Each structure stands twice: as structure tokens, then as C-alpha cells.
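#random but structural
TW: two for the price of one
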Amino acid sequence: MYRYLILSLLFPVVTACSNISDLENRFSPNPELAEQQEDVTQSPLEIPNSFPDTIPQYSNSEVQEVSENLTNEKGLIRWSSSDSIGQISEFYQEQFNRNNWEISQPFNEENNTLIAQKDGLEVQLSFLSASNGNTDYSLRYQTLNGSTASNTEEKPTSSQTKNDNNTNLENVPQSLKSYVADVRQLGTVNLNNTDNKTVKESGIINRRTYARWLVETYNKFYDNNPAKQIRLGVETAKPAFSDVSSNDPDFAVIQGLAEAGIIPSPLTGNSSASLFRPDNPLTREDLVTWKVPLDMGKGLPQASIDNIKETWGFQDTTKIDTKAIQALYADFQNGEQSNVRRVFGYTTLFQPNKGVTLPEAAASLWYFGYQGDGLSAEDVLSINNE
């Protein structure tokens, strides 16, 4: 009897041990499954060979994203690092200074973007976030004014630049020659190069080219004042216009103008302006609508057709768009520095839909400012020479 009792007490223990062993076997890792998981693990992203080797790279970082169609002239790479924003920004500012980059916008508490240029290549270092112990940042780069990122490219001598600036000035109207000559010396316009053959042959500038001239010239005026500069759009931004994708060569400047509210777009509440039409001719109406807000440094004032009749006295006032009416009214208040006076001279017809010639477009960029507070291209050249 005692023997039976002892065996009955031990038996459940043995059974329980057996069950635990089975349970462990059920939940133990499957060697085959583990091998499969290792096989599907993604390899870390690598920096493409086309990424310019002149751009410094922070070693303690991992590539998170690489833009499509990245080349040595244009691209964006996003990184993540366990180091702080301060450590990363200090590294880049030191590297840029050591390697003779020109820092047009240093990193500080107010600006989370550092901008530097060298040999026609512009780099924007932007910090996206700093959380969970990691710092995410992006490096966006592009060549400016048709330059290349090659270190072997020779810069033109001052005499070459002077000769280039005087090329074809005989085709410029006498009244515009001095303006055009000054602006061309800034290196931001090229009267021999537009992006549409038809527009080039007719002597009329297209919208994309003027957008690029406008941004690059305006930013050149304020090289020493980054707070006034127009920020270029980034490739990861949602395009403001359905016909200007992030792959467009002028996306950065067109997107930048839209995001700054300079040109009408859905971002400014103009739902009918969903298309930019980059290769269409620039009209007189376009020119004043885009240029005058940069002269004023603020939004356009309210104005009516009667205001234009009382000031400019144009006979075709009723044909002018509302935004252009506002721009023209503000432009009249700018006195002798008015764009209409400088570019088109005395006229009783504005002809809002008439195409703007290349010399007219360049002359409009000779001065930025309002009611005596501004700079001319001549002023900028004098400052640079000093």
C-alpha cells in the first residue's frame, strides 16, 4: 500500500517534467527560420559613387535615404547619427572653413540649416529631428549657374569674365546697356542661354529662366545677410506646381519662390495657379508680380483699376490681372527706381501679356529695394571689389 502511494505521488512530477520539456521545445528558436530571417535582413544603404567627394561626410552616421537620380551635380542624402546636433554642425562648419568653402548661412539656434558654396557647388545641411538619442539630418547639393562639381575645372580669369559680360551687348537697347552690363558682372544671368529654343530665337525669356535669374540675383545682393535670402526648395517637399516635379532642374528655385509666397500658387490660396508653365514666355504682368514683392520686402498692397488709372494712366488697365494691378500700384510708389520706368520707359500702354526680352529681364534685376532703401547691382559690385 505504501509502495503504491509513493509511486502515485511521484508519477505526476515525472509527467510535469515531460510536459515542460515539450513546452520548451515548442518555443525554442527554429534554426531554419533563423537562417531565413538572416537572409531577408536588408543591407545598409551605401553612398553612391556619384556623390561629390568634395563634400565632407560625418563618419558616425548611417545613410537612411538616397534621392532618386542622384548625380555629382544634384542630389539629397538623409543620414542618422547617435551624436548631437552640436557635434555634427561643428564638424561641418570646421570642415567647410578648413577646405575654403564659403559659408553663406552658418548654423545657429535660429537657423537649423547651414549653407556653403565652393567651385559652383552649393550644399545645404539641414537638421530634421533630434529624438530617441538620434539626430536625423540631410545634405542637399546642387551646382549653380551651370557649373560642375569637378575640382579640376578652371575658374575664368577676370579678363575672361569681362569679355564674356560684354558679349552681344550690341544687341541690347542703349537705354538698358548700363543696367545689363552691371547685372551680367554679378554672374547670375546669361543672355546667351535660355531653356527653350523657340523662346531663345524670339529673344523672349521664359518663366523658368527668369525665376532662376530672380532668385540667384536677389540672393547675390544679400550674400552677407542670409536672413533676407530666398530659401531654395528641397527635393523632399511636395511640389507646389503639378508641372514642376522634384526632378526638374529648376525645381529648387521655383519651389522656393512658391514657398516664400512670391509667386502665385496653391500655397498662396490661388487654386487656379496649379500649373507654373515653366517654358512659356514671361509676360510683363509676370515680371512685376514676381519682382515687386522682393523690392518691398512684404506683401502687395490693396489696389484697384482706378488707382492705376490715376497713377500710371495706362489705357489698357482693364486687361491687367488683379495681382499685377497691386504690384503696379506699389511699383509706382518706388519713384525713379520703379521697374516699369527702368525697363519699359515712358508708356501709356502696359501690354500685360507682351513677352519680356532677355535684356529687359536682366535690367529689372539691377535694383532691389523700396522708396530709397535698397541696393543696385552697381552698389553690390562696388562692395565686392572693396
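TW: number two ↓
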Amino acid sequence: MDAPRTLPSWLLALKNRAYLPTILALVVVCVAVLYAEQQNRTIHQQSMRAQVQQAAGLIKSRLEAQLNGDYQRMRGLAAMLATEPKMSQERFAQIASHVLEGKTAIRHFAAAPDLVVSLVHPMEGNARAIGLDYNKNDEQRAAAYRVRVSGDMVLAGPVNLVQGGTGFIYRLPIFTDAPEGRAFWGILSAVTETNTLYTAAGLLEDSDGIEYALNGQDGTGTAGGQFFGDSAVFAGDPVLLDINLPVGS
């Protein structure tokens, strides 16, 4: 005959009901410890996300202040062109130089009455833009027409600049008063340097371990491509904030 099987010690303990309170207490303690650890991890994660959101919020506010501030500068120059549609290069340079005083990421302005660039500031480094006809330029024709049709500012970029580096291009349509109503005069463009903008926002500073990324090329928000930072940032579970532009985000 086979020898009687010896039950495992834990099963013998279960058969002895005297141990049940101790076992139940041990189970309760284990569950409580696991729950406490999970809660601590959750609280820690929430605290970290709150810190990241605060830091990212500061970057967001700086970017919005710089971008919207530069946009208002551009609108002021556009308003002058609307009231002086036959403005000379000398007059344009004089006004534009005042517009660019102070902290701004704008590198230069170009005005194109009838979609032909005839006014630029500063002239140095940009003289070859004079005479550029958007109607005949395959690379910029579609963008220029989109500005005219939309009747509002269109943002492009970041794009590679002919002068070197990268930048955002604001394009704003200008309309003048005419007997038959509002008439399209042309387009005012402003180029904003990305490095100047990023520096003003604090994106290029030591970020205490926080990684930043920007999405929404051409001001298209979540539909646009990423243009700053590591692509792995968006692949995880990032803190997301919308940077609101005059048009788009």
C-alpha cells in the first residue's frame, strides 16, 4: 500500500480553523500595503505632472506673448500701409525700424502690393527679395493666394530661410478703402527667427529634466507635424498644452 500523503503545511493550517484569523489579517495587511503603494505612486505621478504642467505653462505663456506681440507689431505696420498705399521705401523703412524696436523675434518685413515685393526692411541682406512676384513664384504662389482668399493672417513654418537658419513667416493681407468697397492691396510678410523665439520662451535653457516638444507646423495644431523636440515625447503620456496663435495653434 502507498504511504499516506502528507498535506502541505499551508493546507494543514487552513484545516486548523484556529489560524484563519491570522491568515485573514495577513491578507488584509498585504492588500493594504499594495493599495498604499499604488496610492503613493499615483500621488507621486500626479505631483510630477503638476510640476511639468506648471513649467510648461510658463513656456506656453512666453511663446504666446512673443508670438502675439510680434503679430500686433505687424498689424500696426499693416495699418500704416492701408492708409498710405503708395508708401515709399524710405518711409516704409522708417516706420518698420520703429516697429522693430524692443524685444522682438522678427528678423525683417516685406510688403508686396499686387503680390509683387517692392518694400523691405532692413534692406541689407534682403535686397534680392525686391521684385519677387508671388504670381510667378511656384514655391510661394499658393501661400500668397491663400492669404488673399482667407482675408486673415496665415502662418507658415518653421521653414528654412534663404538667409540661413529657420523661421516662421507671418503673412497678412492688406485691404484699402475704395469707392466700390474694400480693395485688396497686397501682402505684408514678417519673418520670425525660431532660435530667437525659442530663447525668449526659455525652450533652450536647462529644463530640470523636463523634455519639451512642439507640434502643429503651419499653425495647424494637433493636425500638424512636430517641429521641435524628441518625437518620443508625444509617443508617451505627455502633459499637453495648446499654444494659441492669432490664427491657429
